[in-house]
């Protein structure tokens, strides 16, 4: 709301990829960003035994330590916010021999394009955690693996090649790593896209005080409720039926609490 000097609401959400549920959310404070909001959200979650994946903004030593202290493992995207470390990992995979890493390849052929993803993981990370490295260097707690995804996308006569790098405290196989990376991006199509298409999130006009954050919570709870319904109807049809049919609503609420 520009007339009142109010910035847009920026939320960080925790998404359970396997269960397709929103576990929690945290609003970023004024003049702040995800780096401060993520630890606050993690503190409220039960994470024992989980694998927490976060994009490059969350690739911070304090966030990695917070995840490990909660009994979970992290898988963090490594980009330019760690230029020296990213360059080292990039050089490692560029020079790695065939027996240095585990490999896995997957292919998608839809939406008019062919995408080939080549995954590589290495569990020998002693050179990144050694005491002989730079004095005072920031360390990622319990770092156990570095990994890379090379995506080759072919659309018609055009080919695009991209490499992405990751740090993890879990010793995943290459196939497990591939699954985790793909599952991370489900938040875009199974949460953000659904909130826009089913709940028309981008068209919401509520702007004042705590209204936007409160309604975001209500919509996330509603999405969890809709997903708990075990029928073949689309999410949009389920949402409308819940508003029209009290018996259907009661069945959904009962199913969600089982």
Automatic annotation (TrEMBL):
MF GO annotations: DNA binding; transposase activity
Domain Transposase IS4-like: 5-225
GO biological process entries: DNA transposition
Listed name of the protein: ISAs1 family transposase
Organism: Phyllobacterium phragmitis
UniProt lineage: Bacteria, Pseudomonadati, Pseudomonadota, Alphaproteobacteria, Hyphomicrobiales
